[in-house]
């Protein structure tokens, strides 16, 4: 082999991989055209819209600025690439208490529409957060029983998240073994004036003081609660039909 052949071989082997892995997906995914539901196959009709609610943009910035993506992913992988759908409530809920349906699905490119960067994450030290806004309320509802109203469940889920952000190791019900960092600097300790605030955390303080979430903590929790990526996708985009969902725990 002479040098020319070597250089050509090198360029081809890296060049083809670069085209296939970087260039082609970039042009395919940067401006995806809308996908329609198919009548007769999908329950919905019209065009598929990703849903979004809450103070999403501010919270997304707080999420990014605090490096949550270093340990948390936001992508439910195709079953071919990993058994994310089999992890408890990562891809959605196995049994949605409202609809009685299995809402689990893989992530798709529309789940990141409108964001500057898709927060797919660097490593997975903690659980995937793509559906954390479903999972925490579902857990609370399960513990609270059928009598809890939607408002109560929502409030308790927010309180759980505030405590978790303040210090995940506060109690065994949170996780006293957790290695999720404490973000207590997103909270304020202040003197109680008049009544204790509704959203003061249930933590021990000096007498007469209370700990309340600051603006950033509020935006972040609102963002986390908005992470519900389990709305039904058109069948043409659903690569996770029921029989492919592995059901292993952990
Ligand atoms: C050093 C790695 C690391 C960083 C950085 C990190 N986390 Fe975590 N996180 C974890 C681990 C590990 C767990 C699992 C243990 C637990 O539940 O506390 C976890 C759990 C969680 C949970 C509970 C998820 C569930 O399904 O029960 C939430 C919510 C969460 N983290 C949010 C965040 C947010 C928001 C940030 C950024 C402000 C963040 N984490 C930063 C490691 C991290």
Automatic annotation (TrEMBL):
Does Iron count among this protein's keywords? yes
* Alphabetized InterPro entries for the sequence: Cyt_c-like_dom (IPR009056), Cyt_c-like_dom_sf (IPR036909)
Judging by the UniProt lineage, the source's domain of life is Bacteria
Annotated ranges, domain Cytochrome c? 54-228
| Keyword Heme belongs to the record | yes
Keyword entries, A-Z = Heme, Iron, Membrane, Metal-binding, Transmembrane, Transmembrane helix
Quote the biased-composition stretches of kind Basic and acidic residues, using this chain's numbering.
Answer: 241-250
Which residues span the membrane? 6-27
Family annotation (Gene3D superfamilies): Cytochrome c-like domain (1.10.760.10)
The name of this protein is Cytochrome c domain-containing protein
Query: What is the originating organism of this protein?
Result: Haloferula chungangensis
Lineage runs:
Bacteria, Pseudomonadati, Verrucomicrobiota, Verrucomicrobiia, Verrucomicrobiales
């Amino acid at each position: 082999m002479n040098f020319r052949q070597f250089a050509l071989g090198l360029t081809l082997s890296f060049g083809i991989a670069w085209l296939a892995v970087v260039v082609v997906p970039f042009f395919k995914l940067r401006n995806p055209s809308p996908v329609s539901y198919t009548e007769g196959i999908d329950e919905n009709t019209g065009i598929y819209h990703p849903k979004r609610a809450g103070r999403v943009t501010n919270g997304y910035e707080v999420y990014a600025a605090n490096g949550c993506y270093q340990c948390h992913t936001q992508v439910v992988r195709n079953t071919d690439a990993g058994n994310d759908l089999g992890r408890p409530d990562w891809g959605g809920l196995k049994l949605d208490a409202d609809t009685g349906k299995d809402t689990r699905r893989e992530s798709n490119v529309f789940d990141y529409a409108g964001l500057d960067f898709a927060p797919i994450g660097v490593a997975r030290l903690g659980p995937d957060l793509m559906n954390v806004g479903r999972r925490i309320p579902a857990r609370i509802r399960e513990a609270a029983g059928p009598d809890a109203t939607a408002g109560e469940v929502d409030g308790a889920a927010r309180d759980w998240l505030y405590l978790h952000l303040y210090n995940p190791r506060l109690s065994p019900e949170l996780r006293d073994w957790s290695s999720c960092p404490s973000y207590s600097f997103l909270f304020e300790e202040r003197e109680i004036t008049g009544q204790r605030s509704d959203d003061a955390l249930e933590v021990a303080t000096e007498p007469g003081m209370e700990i309340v979430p600051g603006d950033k903590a509020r935006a972040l929790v609102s963002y986390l609660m908005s992470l519900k990526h389990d709305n039904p996708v058109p069948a043409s985009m659903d690569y996770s039909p029921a029989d492919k969902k592995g059901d292993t725990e952990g």
